[in-house]
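Justification of resources, computational component.

The compute hours requested in this renewal are based largely on the per-chain cost of generating structure records like the one below. Each record pairs the submitted sequence with a full structure-token output. That output is archived, and it is also reused by downstream analysis tasks.
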Amino acid sequence: MSQKKLKFNSKTIHGGQKPDKAYGAVMPPIYQTSTFAQTTPGGHQGFEYSRSGNPTRSALENSLASIESGNYGLAFGSGLAAMDAVIKLLSPGDEVISTNDLYGGSYRIFKQIFEKYGIVFHFVGMQNVAEIEKKINTKTRLIWVETPTNPMMNIIDIKAVSKLAQKHNVLLAVDNTFATPYLQRPLEMGADIVMHSATKYLGGHSDVVLGALVVKDKELADQLYFIQNASGAVCGPMDSFLVLRGIKTLHVRMQRHCENGRAIAEYLQNHPKIEKVYWPGLESHPNHAVAKEQMNDFGGMISFIPKGASYNDAIKIVENLNVFTLAESLGGVESLAGHPASMTHASIPKEEREKSGVVDSLIRLSVGIEDASDLIEDLEQAIG
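The structure output for this chain reads:
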């Protein structure tokens, strides 16, 4: 059977993969080398220097392309390095439209790094596509989407934004970190670029930092590869191996993340001391219908606000958790809790944070694959 005809669960294991040519190793070897022997200048076996390409990284990039229904994958040293490459497609004076509710590191690289080079960024609520079109002009080159958004779990209609981007001949990039290709595949819905912080669910074990881009178009892939090679923001072979290994269990881990996410979201929704719960699988979620249409399930990321809680009250709750670990990041097998205002989104000015709902009392959970009853019991004792 052609690998392209494989269903998703099979692609995570076999997609883009072949046994190693040297000895038939089932898992790609870790080619821990900086350079490769040549028989004559320019005469090599496909690799010459590991910044430009490495067999272990190539194996990961082939897997990434397969699971995201793309043709070309590129692996970077981090998710932000992958974003950096995308913005380097642009020139001074170009404009970008981004969701107003996004990861703090994304906001930081847009505003504090690239804005001073003359690239203009507009931040809008993208749940209403009409708000995006209001910002489009002759200088618009890129629309940057996160869905679900971090940390408010807003859902953006990828197909609708794709039609808008195509109408105006604008690139559409989708940060698919929260959903993973297990839940949604933006390239199938018309996006041009898919980005991942593979540190999160793709790696899945909190033991690696890595980023990824996947595209279908060869010319776009060539441009991004040139930027990657020229700028040097590549990942090493060991990191590539770890993420490739993580991808092979992505489908079974995501199934449990989703099951546990539902259990926790429903528990919090019915808790008398919880004011709001943000999880797209709840029918009360304002974008639930769109999420149901474009996602296969709803993931393990949840945010919530305790009733009448202050900054210090939220801090106390996350500090009192025992099974949940208070830590940055997300998407590992272990459950994590965070306080966005002081952690992941601290780089966004308070006034801007609160416009998108990231108030001081907001708590974000990355629900792992432990027993759901243990997680609920932990939340119960922490909330009090």
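The radius of gyration is 21 Å. The chain has two domains: 3-247, 251-383.
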